[in-house]
Design goal:
about 350 residues; alpha/beta; three-stranded antiparallel sheet
């Protein structure tokens, strides 16, 4: 399978299964339309005929031969090597777990994926007994895997901070016995952060995800407290303190854009101005009938905005200014594992090989 497209003046072709990315000249890009998984060394007559009004026959043959060489090298229309392992996955060991430690939240974000924090099930917090059973479960089902990932999620996990602490302490206490190493992640809306929680997160959490939608007016339009006030002024100084004390441990600021903020490059740049360097912003996932949803008609602008953000990022890096946009992190040498590891995907794989 390939994906071919034009961007920023380049003709690009991504060979999906090998991960190879090719930059093509115009003629090769056009010839590619006549190639598929069953291509042979002989150039198709239809291609030679169809393109004869634009290119010389020798040029067409040369372009086709170059593509065929890529095909032979397994870098074009390459087979899906992972398909053969699909059945094995059902019996694969459990390597990561998301613990919904809090079915409650102290914000009432308009676009909340969790029905304003309680998932429509009533507000409640997980007991330590249940969290302990979750840790026992992942150990029992993790086979020979050494690194295990546990993500504290909600609602707002810090509303159940004591149980988070107890759970981490319990997991650490049995690591040696079972020859496991836990890597914890927490996602927070920031409201309850204080010095004690910042210390704990920076000590125990391998990664932390800090929710912020960018500019104050954008964030405060939808991320509001139960009394309807925006949370920007409360959370930003707390995030700045946490990140300043975090050293080289992973974190990222995670935002959501909606139909109201399709110019989200401005939000990413605002996060950067606040002093954050690890940034992410994603489209809201919601019923298209809701007023803040991204509609079909919004897509051309959203696509243009991603390109604008990419150009901005490149220009800033050329000037020596750095920030990292999470969704542009494609490691062309190591494949998706290297990316997911930063996200705390649970791969826990030190050498980038699938496990
Ligand atoms: S902080 Fe998260 S869980 Fe809480 S209301 Fe906002 S989106 Fe929902």
């Amino acid at each position: 399978m390939i994906h071919k497209y034009k961007l920023n003046g380049y003709n690009l072709c991504l060979d999906v299964h090998s991960g190879a990315v090719h930059v093509l000249d115009d003629i090769t890009y056009d010839v590619l339309d006549y190639c598929d998984e069953s291509m042979t060394a002989e150039a198709p007559e239809t291609m030679l005929k169809d393109l004869s009004d634009r290119y010389e026959r020798d040029e067409l043959l040369e372009a086709y031969a170059a593509l065929y060489e890529l095909y032979e090298m397994g870098q074009l229309f390459s087979p899906d090597d992972y398909e053969q392992f699909a059945d094995l996955m059902t019996k694969a060991p459990v390597k990561s777990m998301c613990i919904n430690i809090s079915h409650d939240c102290n914000l009432r974000c308009e676009y909340c994926f969790a029905a304003k924090g309680d998932f429509g099930q009533g507000r409640c917090l997980m007991s330590f007994d249940t969290a302990k059973k979750a840790i026992d479960f992942i150990i029992a089902h993790s086979g020979t895997r050494h690194n295990l990932e546990v993500d504290f999620f909600g609602g707002e996990p810090l509303m159940n901070f004591d149980v988070v602490k107890q759970t981490v302490e319990y997991a650490r206490s049995i690591e040696q016995k079972y020859n496991k190493r836990f890597r914890f992640t927490i996602t927070t809306n920031g409201l309850l952060l204080d010095d004690e929680k910042i210390d704990f997160i920076n000590r125990e959490m391998h990664n932390c995800v800090l929710s912020l939608d960018g500019r104050k007016e954008v964030n405060d339009k939808l991320r509001v407290t139960p009394n309807g006030k925006g949370c920007y002024d409360i959370i930003v100084p707390k995030y700045q303190k946490l990140v300043a004390q975090r050293g080289d441990k992973d974190y990222y600021i995670r935002g959501t854009f909606t139909t109201y903020s399709k110019d989200f490059t401005a939000d990413v740049l605002h996060m950067k101005e606040l002093g954050f360097e690890q940034l992410s912003i994603e489209p809201v996932v919601s019923d298209p009938k809701l007023p803040y949803s991204i509609k079909e008609a919004d897509l051309p602008m959203v696509f243009r905005e991603y390109e604008r953000l990419a150009k901005t990022l490149i220009e800033m890096r050329q000037r020596g200014e750095y920030f990292n946009f999470f969704h542009f992190m494609i490691d062309l040498d190591q494949g998706p594992c290297a990316i997911k590891r930063l996200r705390g995907c649970g791969c826990g794989n030190e050498d980038g090989q699938p496990q």
